[in-house]
Design brief:
Layout (H helix, E strand, L loop, with lengths): L2 E5 L2 E2 L2 E2 L3 H10 L5 E6 L6 H4 L6 E6 L8 H11 L3 E6 L2 H14 L2 E6 L1 E3 L2 E6 L4 E6 L4 E5 L15 E5 L26 E5 L9 H11 L2 E4 L1 H6 L20 E5 L5 H7 L4 E6 L12 E4 L2 H16 L1
Parallel strand pairs: 1-4, 1-6, 4-5, 5-12, 6-11, 7-11, 13-14, 13-15, 15-16, 16-17
Antiparallel strand pairs: 2-3, 8-9, 9-10
The structure holds flavin-adenine dinucleotide.
Flavin-adenine dinucleotide binds next to helix 6, helix 7, strand 16 and helix 8.
């Protein structure tokens, strides 16, 4: 029998809150989904038991889930997930996983879904220049953008079953060595302040960090900033070849607004741009624009925010 399956979003070994949004997306397809939680310890699935709306929760237990590896995760999940429509988050990791599972099963993949209307799925294409709507007929793997669907309400008490899964894998990732950073990741933030080449130097990002600390925001960057300055890591890059973000507030500072940057942030709820060039393309997409240098604008923004938050 064909079912709708939600793969829980796992961040740092725990079920991420966006999983509740995936349950709502599954319900928009007209079904109560099976929620699969990839884990090394079945206790991880407890983090999902309070999310209402799933028909059952399966803790898929395997050592392969200790570190992300597309081939290993896809093999292990393929072995445990029933046939049907599979829904995952449109995070970089889960988009990669979705494509792998779809390839293993020989079914379609639709990435970055932002609307589900019956069996019609809408998602951005051509770096967000256009939207496409495709009709779902049969099994497929979908990824759903965070912050688009409401989270399924808390208060559920769905029973959890545990399944050991290994899949048929040749290699396993033993360890990740991430560049240490204590800052919030742009992909998880509700507010982002990003800097571009107009910041002039990576040292000037300290002004963005200071505002980010006041607002509880993450600091992002354009590709030009990442490519120009070694100390600005790729993990901060927003855009077509960086991360896709969907925060409530995106503040672009010294960023021109190239189409490839817009591809990663144009669906933000509110966009504020600070740029010294009144003709910068970013202003065409901004809800609020400040024509000024960052040297003029950021101190005013910082002191206003600090007094508001005091
Ligand atoms: C295949 C491909 C993929 C790409 N992927 C990405 C991607 O993922 N993300 C991305 O960002 N780009 C991406 N790019 C690059 C993109 O085309 C642009 O080159 C890049 O976004 C420009 O970055 P920027 O706006 O920081 O720099 P610039 O275009 O150099 O703009 C700097 C801006 O800062 C302003 N400025 C200068 N000084 C000040 C000041 N003191 N105060 C305020 N404003 C100031 C200027 O007026 C200007 O508008 C990609 C390109 C290609 C071809």
């Amino acid at each position: 029998m064909s079912e709708t399956i939600v793969i829980a979003e796992i961040v740092k070994g725990a079920v991420h809150s966006t999983t509740a949004e995936l349950i709502t997306a599954a319900q928009a397809l007209g079904s109560q989904p099976v929620l699969i939680v990839p884990c090394t310890d079945a206790g991880t699935a407890d983090g999902a038991s309070g999310m209402s709306g799933a028909s059952r929760i399966v803790a898929a237990k395997s050592e392969v889930f200790a570190n992300y590896d597309a081939a290993g995760w896809a093999a292990a999940l393929d072995a445990v997930a029933p046939s049907g429509v599979i829904i995952a988050s449109a995070s970089p990791q889960s988009k990669d996983l979705a494509a792998r599972i779809a390839a293993r099963r020989g079914i379609s993949v639709v990435q970055d879904v932002v609307k589900i209307d019956g069996h019609n799925l809408t998602s951005p294409i051509y770096s967000g220049k256009a939207m496409q709507t495709v009709a779902l007929s049969g099994d497929a793997v979908l990824t759903v953008r965070p912050n688009v669907f409401d989270a399924a309400p808390a208060g559920g008490s769905t029973e959890i079953s545990v399944v050991d899964t290994t899949g048929d894998m040749a290699t396993a990732v033993q360890e990740f060595m991430a560049r240490a950073s204590s800052r919030l990741d742009v992909a998880e933030a509700n507010i982002i302040i990003s800097g571009g080449r107009g910041m002039g130097s990576p040292d000037n990002f300290v002004h963005l960090e200071s505002i980010a600390d006041t607002l509880g925001a993450a600091v992002g960057a354009s590709r030009a900033a990442v490519d120009t300055w070694e100390s600005i890591p790729h993990s901060m890059q927003v855009g077509q070849t960086g991360k896709t973000v969907n925060p409530n507030l995106y503040i672009a500072v010294g960023i021109s607004g190239a189409i490839q940057h817009l591809a990663g942030m144009r669906s933000s709820k509110y966009i504020v741009a600070i740029n010294k060039d009144a003709d910068a393309p970013i202003f065409q997409h901004a809800d609020y624009g400040i024509v000024a240098t960052w040297e003029e604008a950021l101190p005013v923004l910082q002191s206003t925010l600090s007094s508001m938050m005091a």
